[in-house]
User: What shape does this take?
Amino acid sequence: MFKLKENHTTVKTELLAGLTTFMSMAYILMVNAGMFTDIEGNPVTYGAIYISTALSAIIGSVLIGLLANLPLAQAPGMGLNAFFVYTICNIMHFSYANTLVIVLFDGLLFVLLTVTGLRKAIFGSIPHAVKAAISSGIGLFIAFLGFQNTGLIVNSESTLVDLHSFNLLYNQTTWAEILPIFITILAIVLIGALSKMKVRGAVFFGILLGTVLYYALGLLTVPDFFKTNIEGNLSLNIVQPFKDFFNLSFAKVFTEGFDFSAYINANGVGSFVITLLASGLAMCMIDMFDTLGTLYGACSVGGILDKDGNVPRMNKAMLSDAIATCTGAVFGNCTVTSFVESSAGVAEGGRTGLTSIFTAMFFFIAMFFAPFAALIPECATAAALVYVGILMMSSIKDIDWSDPSNAVPAFFTISIMPFTYNISYGIAFGLLSYILIKLFSKRFKDINIGTWIIGILFVIMFFVSR
Assistant: This one.
């Protein structure tokens, strides 16, 4: 089935590659679960999303392994989860179940675009500078979230944001407040050092080391630390996360998701229709760019690209991504996408879809460790957010900053995302500034019809949404 001999690999090599990929992306289980607990009203639990994330990774990885026979893995995407939680749920005020409908819409649209070949047209409608800036903007956004989650960045009446006080000498703060910040900074440095030493799963091990240090220092130096930070989280109930998953997440997209009455009553029908379309389109674009970049990046690492420099079985890989996103919506999660960490497994020798199947197997085993994962403190997962944000900033080098028609849209895209807590606003400002610069500089031919359509949708979104 996987043509191991033809691809010059063995079952043992594929197993080790699958394990390497899993270790490199296992952090998504904890980070995603923690992020979803930030949704207003707390409609889901850590355990429910932990199970949902694992199942989404299993289905997505199996799909791309069987359909495309590529050594890649899929899971709910970083950046896409932030868009789901902080933009659509907490800023636009769609409910958790409503947002799952937008994810389902994204998946179905992705299937349609892939099957009909319109994917290339949409992809070609986005200016290169905006494409390159999207990843960097999301990286800066999720790094900002990580700094906020650990308490390093705090609210300020005068400047809106400020650095948390480290002044222990004059009792302006306490060691109990500084400890999580200290652990996050140290964990980021540890992850960077492990990555520099080519350690597979550096982010995962950085989270574990940060967790150990947090509890060790807390127990030794913070009064009542056990009672405050450990006692309430201790649980060996392996069944409860599965119960929460079936009660709070599974199939919510169908049982509650299509009831948009609360949003329509608050914002009107026009705002609902345009915001739904713009949000779904933004989510689909992020997913598409993320997937395309990951496919090319990971396959080029292992020399898997064909003689023309293209990803083999590209349409099947994209279709796997789209179907996995639809499945993820049913499981109660954000958009499922291919993970760039798959390149770690490819570098380890993975060449076929069997690598993906083994990765899925390890995610299945990980499902039964949800109670232990819940003990990982937010300061440790915040380090993962920041470091992944650092990695996502790498695309900034592909932008021609000497050309204002590239620099201005790119800057808008990157800066607006963290400043407004909204990924779609960043894409909108980048795209619209590109159109306006081309118009004012009389370069009308540089704007294709697809760019106009997407730009008009974003303009309408601004006028009809709050």
